[in-house]
Each structure stands twice: as C-alpha cells, then as structure tokens.
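quick one, three chains, predict together pls
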Amino acid sequence: MSLHCRNSLLAFALVALLAGCNREERNSRGKPLAETAPGMVTPDTILPGNARPSAPDPRAAQYENNAPSISQGQTLFAQMNCSGCHSHGGGGMGPALMDAKWRYGGRMDQIVASIAEGRPNGMPAWRGKLTEQQMWQIAAYVRTLSGQERKDAVSARADEMSNTPPQTQIEREPIESAESGQQ
Amino acid sequence: MTRLAHRLIALPLGFLSACAGNQNAMGGQGLESANFIVLFLVFLAVCAVMYLLVLAGLGIALRRRRDAGQANSVDEDRHEETSARTKVALIVWTGLVTVGLTILTVASFFSDRSNASSTRRSGLALTITGNQWWWNVQYDTSDPSASVRTANEIHLPVNVPVHVTLKSNDVIHSFWVPNLAGKQDLIPGRQTDIELLPRRTGVFHGQCAEFCGVQHTRMALDVIVEPLDDFRRWYAQQLATAPAPTTRLQMAGYRYFVTRECSSCHNVAGSPAGGQIGPDLTHVASRRSIGAGTLPLNRGNLYGWIADPQSHKPGSRMPTIPMEPRDLHSLVAYIETLK
Amino acid sequence: MSSALEKAKAPPADVPRDGPGLSGPVLEARLARTWGRPRGLIGWLSSVDHKDIGRRYIVTALTFLALAGALALIMRLQLAKPENDLVGAARYNEIFTMHGTTMMFLFAVPVMQGVQIYLTPLMIGTRAMAFPRLTAVSFYLYLAGGCLLWVAFILNIAPDIGWFAYPPLSGPQYGVGKRPDIWAQMVTFTEVASLAAAVTLIATILKQRAPGMSLARMPLYVWTTLVTSLMVVFSMPAVALASSLLLSDRLVGTHFYNPAEGGDALLWQHLFWFFGHPEVYIIFLPATGFVSEIVATFSRRSIVFYPVVVLSVVATGILAFGLWVHHMFATGLPRVGYSFYTAASISVSIPTALQIFCWIATLWEGRPRLQVPLLYVIGFIITFVIGGLTGVMIAAVPLDLQLHDTYFIVAHFHYVLIGGAVFPLLGAITYWFPKFTGRMMSEKIGKLGFWMLFLGFQLAFFPMHVAGIYGMPRRVYTYPAGMGLEWPNLLSSLGSLVVALAVLLFVLNMVRSALGGRRAAANPWDGSSLEWATQSPPADYNFAHIPVVESRAPLWGSRDHLPVVHGLRVDDRELLLTTVMDAVPDVREPSAQPSPWPFISSVAISVMFIGSILSPWALVVGAIPATIAMAAWFWPKGPPELEPTIS
C-alpha cells in the first residue's frame, strides 16, 4: 500500500473516531412525507456557458458514510438481484460498479436517479418498486464498491462466498466524467 | 414407566397445564414438554431436599448453645480440632450429594432418550427458515405442488409427529414453542432439526429465543394444534391460490400491490406478485397476527401496519411506504381478501 | 571469576540490613523512605505499590458496578409493565449489552483481582508483588478498556450485540458500524490486563511466601488466588483469540465466522464459552476464599478439614474447563456429546458442596459472632445454594432446552453471581475495611444494608424463575400482556429498587467510615493470617521484618510474639524469595522502583489498540511508540550486584 494511501487511511481513522456519531445514526423510517427521488439530475459535468453543475442533493449527506444505510443497501443489493447484471461490482451484462467510469454520473443523487429512472440497455426503473429511502441506501452501498465512502463506515465483507476484495481495503477510485466513458 | 406412574404424573400435569398460558413451559401439551415437567419436578424435589438439609445445617450451626464458660477469643490450643462425628458427617454428606446427583443425572439421561426416540413413525415434515425478524414456514411434501409456504404461523394435526428442519438466512435464531417442546437454534450455514409431537389441541405461541438483532422481541409465531380433519381443511385452503379481487376497491388494491413496492418483496400465489424476500402473503388474512406476532390481525391493525410498519416494529425490514389515503384503503381491502 | 564468587559468599558488610542492630522506629523510618511512593501527579502515575494498584482496581471496579447497576435499573423500569415504552428497542439492546459487558469484564473479574493484588503480599508476608510494574500496566490497560466502552456509550456508539456477541449478529454484515469492534477491542484490553495480573499473582504466591509458609500452610484465600490466576492464564487467551478473529473478520474481511467460505458461527461459541465458563469460576472461587477467611475468623476457629477445602478449590478449577458446551445445548451438536457435558456440569457441584459442608461445620464447631461480614456469608450460603441447584437443573439437557435463553437463566446466574460473589465481596470489604483504611465501617448501617440487600435481592430475582418458566425469553425489551408475566416482572422491578438502595447505603457507609469512622487497631477482628500483623492501614513496606510462619494460623499460634527473619536490605527495595513447596528461604531479589514507564506504555498500547478499531495500520504505526515506551521501561539499570546466597 502506498504511503499516500496509508496516511490517508490513518487520517480517515482519526476523523472517523471523531465523526463516529454520524456514522452510527440509525433512521429506520425515512421522511414521513413522500420523497421524490431526484429524476432531473443531469450526469453531465461539463455544461455550456461555464455553468456550474447543480449542487449535490442535501439528502445525500444523511446516507453517505452512514453504516446502517450502507449495510441495508448491501442487503437490498443482494435481495433485488443487482448482482444478476452487475455481478458484485465487476459488471457483466451491466456495467462495472467498482471502476472509475460512471456513464450516468457517480454522485449519490445521480446514482439514485439511475436506479429510479432506469437506464438504456437494460437497467430497470425502480421508482415505485423501491422506496426512495431504499434507493438512497443502495446508492450508498454502490459507492462503497469503488471506495468512495469512508472505510470505517463500510463492512469488510458479507456473510456469503467471497466475491470482492474486502471493502475496507479497496482503494478509492476517481469518478470520471460521463464523457470520458465514451468508447 | 408404569401406568400408575403415568396417572400419578398426569394429575398434576393436567392441573398445571390448566393454569399455564399459551407460551408456557408448564403447559405440557407436547411429548417433550410433558417430559420436561416430569423431569423438572423430579429435579425440584431432590434439589429442595438438599437445600433444606443445607439450611437446617446452617440454622443449627448458628443456634447451637456452646459452653458459656469459654473466653470470647480463639482457643489457641484447640482451634484446629475436629470431632470424629464431623468426619463421619462429611463422608455421609459426600455420599448423599453424590447419590442425589447421580439420580438426577440418570433421570436426565432417561428423559433425553425418551425425547430422542419419540418419533419413530414418520409424520409431517416442515422446514422453517429464520430471517430477521420473521419465520418462513414450508411444509415439505414429496410432491412439490402439494407444498404449502406460509409465514409466522404453523398448523399441526394433534398426535402426529412432526419433524422440523431449521435453517437461517442471516443470524442465529432459536425456535421455541414452550407448550410443545424445548428450543433449537437456527444457525446460518448449518441445518438443525427438532421433533414435535403435540398431544393436545390448542393455540400456542412461540418466540425466537436467541438474540437476533433490534427486533428480536417481535419475532413470535402462532402454533395451532387441531384435529386432523381441521388441519387437512386448513392445508387445502393454504394450497389454493389467492382469489381474484371482486370490488373496485379491491381491484385498485390489487393493482397497487402487484405494480408497486409490495411485489418487490412479497408473494401472493396466483398473482404477478412474486417477491421471495418477505413473508408469503397469499393467505395472510387467515392468520392470527401481523408482523410475526407484533399485532393481532384485524382491520385497524392492518391499516396501521401497512401505513407505517416502522412505528410498530422500528428497524424491521419492511419500509414505510408513503402512500395516499385511497391507496391505503384499497390495499387493506385487497389484503382482507387473502384468506 | 572466582574472586567474584568469593565476594558473593560473604554478605557485603557496608549495606544496612534489618536485624537486632536495626529495628523499631529507626528501622521503620528508613524502610518508609525506601519503599515510599514519590509525590505529585507523576508520583501517583509512577506508583508500583501493590496496595495503590489494588485500591485503584477496587475503586474503579466499584464505579463500574454502580454504572452497570444504573443500567439495570433502567431495564427493570422498562420491564415493570407490559408493552412499556420507556426505552426503545435499539437503546434497550445497547443497555443490556453494556450492563452485561460491564458487570462481567469491568467489574466482576477486576474487583476480584484488585482485592487479590492488595491482599496477597500482605497475607503471605512479603513487601511487593513479583512484577510490580506489570501490575501497574494491568491496571492502566483495564482502565483504558473500561473508558473505551463507556465513552462509546456516551457518544451513542455503544455495542448492541449482547455481552457474548455471537456472530453472525456481531459479524461484518449484521454488526453494523463500529459498535461490535469497540466491544471486541475492550475485551482485548481487559484480557491483557487480567493475564498480566494473574501472571504476577502466580509468581508472587509461588516464590515470595514467608519462610515456613509451605503450600499446606497457605491461607485459603491465597489458595483461591493461585487457582483462579492459573485459570485466567488458561482461559483468557481463548476469548482474546475469539475477539481477535472477530476483529479480523470485520476489519480486513477474513472468513473465520463465515460459513459460506468454510468458517463456522459455532467456532465463536466454542472459543467464547471455553473462556466463559471458567470465567464464572474465576469470579466465584475468590469469593469462596473470602468466605473461608471470614468463617474462620468469626467462628473463632480454623476452617474444618483444610485439605478438603483446598482440594475442592483445585478440583473446581480443573473441572470448570470441561463444562463449556452446556451453554450450547440448543445448537444441534451430537446428543451423545451433550450427555458428557451434563454429567460434568452436575459433578462440578460436588466439590462446592464439600466446601459448603466445611463452612457450616466450622460454624457448628466454632463459636460464631453474628457481625456484618458473617451475615454476608450466611446470606451467601442461603442464596448461592439456590443458584447452584438451579444450575444443576439446567445442566440436564431436557430441562435446559426449555429454560435456555429465558429469564430462568437470568435468575440462575444472578443468584450465583450476586449471591455467590457479590455477597462475599461486600462481607470481605467490611472485613478488610479496617485494614485498608484504618477505620471500622458502621456495624448498624452494615446490618441494615445487609438485610435490605438480602431481601431486596430475593424479591428482585426469585420471580425471574417463574417468568422464565412462564415463557419470557431473554433480551426482550417488552412482553405482551396476558402471558402471566406482569406480576413476576413488577416484583422484580420493585426488588431492584430495594437492591439499588441497599448498594447505595453500603457505599455511603464506606465513604462515611473512611472519612470519620471509628479508628481500628491492627487486628480488630482477631484474625489469624499475616495481614493482621501489619498496621491499619499497612505502611508502604508492609512488614518491618519478614515474619516466619509455623502453622496455618500464625497470629493465633504466636500471640505475644511473631517470629521474624532478619537480613533484608533497608536502603534499597529487596524481597526474600523462598522455595515453591516448603517456603525455605532461597535468594534475595531486588524489587522494582516506581516508574512512569508503565503508564506511558499503557497509553501507547491503548492508542495502538483503539486505532486498530479503525484501521489495521494502527497496529503497525502504533507499535512504534509502544516499543519505545517498553524499551525505556525495561532498560537495564546497570550491572547487577551479586547478592549472597542464603545458606
């Protein structure tokens, strides 16, 4: 492991200790009123006229780096058979989720939009089939596959056959813009 | 055991089971639980005798009168002397304890063997899979089309031995219906089993008996022991697929059920809703409780549960689905047809 | 070489030693200077005096007792009525986990070890423990582990997986967040601390007894200390291994407890209970030592059949290792194997039954004085035997399969732990309070507190037997109405309030007596063992001259004078080591000076352990300061002086 990686891990450790409260927050209900999963979020990062990309959805902070959300997302990933197309992050019929290429964006709200709306070439639309809270939880888990979340919020493995490197050891991938995913 | 002994034991057993509730180790309505009561009473008797002997010894030791003439301090020359009677008493006590404990051990072995050999004839076979925090129940038959899948409720015919295979999908649970038998753990990665032989009809209650997470408290199950004909009737009804909805409200509920979140997790046989993750709901309205014993099943509780399961069983896997009131009305109307 | 040997044969004439030429107040002043503790905060942190460490252990453990007891009150308030909503499900799970973990890991074993650390050198007639700095590290690591757990509770990240943390619930998938890691690392801290204390106790008992105190003349409390310390050495590594494997699964994704990859959820249970069952005897056997000492003193005679009591303690210690599967009777292991564990679990009560006979026979043959310590012993006998008998019941597989994981078990273990360990502990605190503090505890308040505790305990815990039989499982935050559980739970909750008041009364008695109680002489109870020959409280050097022991009850045999040996150095810390079996004087050995390095090492090790909860690299990076601190600690002091052998 590179020196940079190790140092950032240790830095994470210190921050994690202090930020422990947020990591362990349990919220079993979600918002009582109907949430709307973001559907109009563009995955583009280069916009005409030097416009800024939209601000990240504030709801993301509640689910990112939150251990119960990531754990529930992991359970839902298995139960909704996401691995049927995406395997356990390596991709198959569906694109890989553990690499740096995000065709439709790798931010939390962009991932939730992909789950809710479905995407061309086979991604089903889950809006109405999963609650918004569940989609946010899955998105939080999906982001851990490429190491985006803090390592102290992630569980090292699931209680199943080993199919990924331990998630506490995954190096953080950059999130490359959609355009670079063109072939 | 002799017939007389059986009758002698049956009398207090009957008395005890009359007092016992429906989740009670003194119920004795199954073979194993009846053996438990007998063995428990044997142990209680022997242990009570030993305890009274200890108390008597202690009491006499403290109350004995001793020579008033002795000084208040230690007798330096004789503080280590022990009378010969005490030596004999030690040997007698050791013998008594050993004999008593041997009797108890042997009684325990006999009871254990009796439980193990209880089901020689083949009867019913079930597979129960534990999940956080509900019970998946499957009646195993050689013909798969005759196999019933239900959740959180078991019907058993009286006097028919039942072999239950126990598995777990996530963490360690424990299947425990005290009126019928002792408990057995459900351990992921392993298969355990338990034999039941219900001897009396009744409605009994079981509960998970191994801490399994935040809603371990709300992981109960109903066990209905009934005459064989009633059981067959119930079984045939469970095999049937769900009836088609008739009223407009029910149809709206059906549409919601099969197109929205419900069908992601739940299964209603005969409809497009085929989710295998949550409890089977094909005949949910025929059950006694909702949410693995969380609420008794009635219209009001159905409304409350479907509207917000997290307020009744916070942390459970069923999410609170924000819905319009008319959706709630139609869903409850539809669910109530699932008898 | 030969000249050095020759020099060694003759004692250096210029070193001051205690003897006929140097005794009395002059000797005491010089010894006080040599064995005194340095002043100030650094001095406090550098102390290696076993009395200091023992006192700190006891005060810390009693604080944790109070904290865990408060949690128990909250649980009982929640359970007082059915469908109560005082405490929610998740919070309740945290509370019972914290209650069990604190009581077992942070109170029961440490308080017993703390009393052992305080009393053992006094009872065997020596001035220090064998490894004084290791004892200091033991305390600091224990304190660090306890603080880790309770700071986590205050920060709302307390573990919620039960005090025995079964995987897969505590595993990486279902044990969410860092809560189980905090639990597992706390176990590492307390296990290392216990091992360190046990090792030094064994060495002290085997090698530092006063001349003439053969193994057959050791006080019974010292015997229980020896046996439990050996039990700690053999059982604690099992739980340390189990928790380390769990930490490894959770931190780096190993598969020890993952059945899908060849691991086994039952591996945890075997490892944990291999430790867990001996642990309850580690808690219970020192209590039997307390009882033996108190019964002898308050019956005004020696314990009847000393060899029987010793052999019972040893037999219990050995047999305790063969019982652990009785915690796993519901897991589906082969029934034939279970029969063995039923027989073993039932037979372990035979040595204890013999001990109870010996205690009652001692009271019978003696002239009992019904003062507070003896009252606690009587309460112990009445209460513990009930717990032992319910233990015999649940040793039988058919009974256990109904009663396992119900409130019957909760009743059983509270009867044996509170009745069997806490009652003797409170009696022992009352008994040795004059020795620890130089003041007597109030007899009137003591009696009132005893009766409140005894009756409150029965009220609180006896109905739990009924609740368990009536179908109430463990670890539930509520129960439905109509199961017949209302009145047992209400009675238990009322009883728990009485118990809380009684404990509060005891603590108030301690505090009030420590500040202004009646002053005590050296031997206020007319005890027979060597600690009563020291001052109250003992001077830093314990004994002005090392005593010689000629019987099992040295202070009863030699009332007017206690024979002593002369010849230990006065200007430096020196101990007399004797042989293991017959305590014939063997060599003189220097004893460690006070040092801040044990404290600094503990801090470094704590940082390493706590960091490793979050990242495995903390073990590597944290090892550096730990190594530096320990190197400074062990740095050699200079060429050792040759001490003359004792002929």
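Residues 115 and 126 of chain A are 6 Å apart (CA to CA).
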